[in-house]
């Protein structure tokens, strides 16, 4: 890849702009593998989000051909050994085949673990409804909130029975609140109003207090809904 670089040369009162071309050597697939390994090693004791954003930063510095090589390396690793570090690296990198691969990896998880939590978080960004059945298994696990966030984003109507059950549990109210906000952002406030009426169904006296409690479970800046939208939702119940 050739990159044009400018430099200034000063002669007395005059400044001359000199243009020259600097040769930049593309990283090979093996070099990208090594860079990934070093990155993961450096962040071994770091928080997941630090590795996630560092991987995204490195990806953005690559030329398109190098990005393709990095994606190819990640697909190979996810297929052979979808370890926690590799899944975390993929969170903010566009890997086309990511969701189907992670769905298979999630099917191998027999219980809720840090690995399954990372897969669920990555699947949420992948937005791949075909993984619905794989994620649904975790609805009655200790990672129910993360699973519900994926399911509701992919198919809100299908997820309503699960949401009703979650709304009766105070420990899941914060997840429910953010799921409703995500629905408002992705589908619109009017759609969310219709969804809530559908959720309350034929027994609004039972479900309305739960919905109201969830919408008001966080105050001020801690509530993801703007004040006016929150008022509209509460008035529509």
Write up this protein.
- By secondary structure, the protein is mainly alpha-helical.
- It has a domain at 158-237.
- 64% of the residues lie in helices and 8% in strands.
- It contains 13 helices and two strands, in the order ββααααααααααααα.
- It has helices at 29-42, 48-61, 64-80, 84-89, 98-108, 114-126, 132-136, 144-154, 156-167, 173-187, 189-200, 204-215, 227-236; strands at residues 2-11, 14-23.
- A two-stranded antiparallel sheet has the order 1-2.
- The longest helix is centred in the first third of the chain and has 17 residues, at 64-80.
Main attributes of the structure:
237 residues, mainly alpha, two-stranded antiparallel sheet, 2 strands, 8% strand, disordered N terminus
What is this structure, in a nutshell?
With 237 residues, the chain is mostly helical. The protein has helices at 29-42, 48-61, 64-80, 84-89, 98-108, 114-126, 132-136, 144-154, 156-167, 173-187, 189-200, 204-215, 227-236, and strands spanning 2-11, 14-23.
């Amino acid at each position: 890849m050739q990159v044009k670089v400018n430099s200034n040369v000063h002669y007395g009162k005059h400044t001359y702009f000199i243009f020259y071309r600097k040769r930049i050597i593309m990283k090979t697939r093996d070099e990208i593998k090594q860079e990934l390994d070093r990155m993961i090693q450096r962040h071994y004791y770091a928080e997941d989000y630090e590795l996630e954003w560092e991987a995204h930063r490195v990806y953005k510095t690559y030329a398109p051909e190098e990005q393709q090589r990095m994606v190819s390396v990640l697909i190979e690793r996810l297929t052979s050994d979808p370890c926690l570090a590799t899944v975390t690296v993929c969170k903010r990198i566009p890997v086309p085949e990511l969701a189907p691969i992670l769905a298979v990896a999630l099917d191998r998880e027999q219980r809720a673990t840090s690995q399954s939590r990372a897969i669920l978080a990555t699947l949420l960004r992948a937005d791949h409804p075909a993984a619905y059945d794989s994620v649904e298994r975790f609805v009655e696990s200790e990672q129910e909130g993360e699973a519900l966030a994926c399911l509701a984003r992919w198919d809100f109507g299908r997820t309503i029975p699960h949401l009703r059950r979650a709304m009766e549990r105070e420990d899941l109210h914060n997840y429910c609140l953010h799921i409703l906000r995500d629905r408002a952002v992705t589908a619109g406030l009017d759609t969310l109003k219709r969804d809530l009426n559908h959720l309350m169904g034929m027994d609004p006296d039972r479900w309305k207090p739960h919905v109201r409690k969830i919408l008001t479970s966080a105050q001020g800046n801690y509530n993801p809904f703007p004040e006016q939208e929150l008022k509209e939702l509460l008035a529509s119940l």
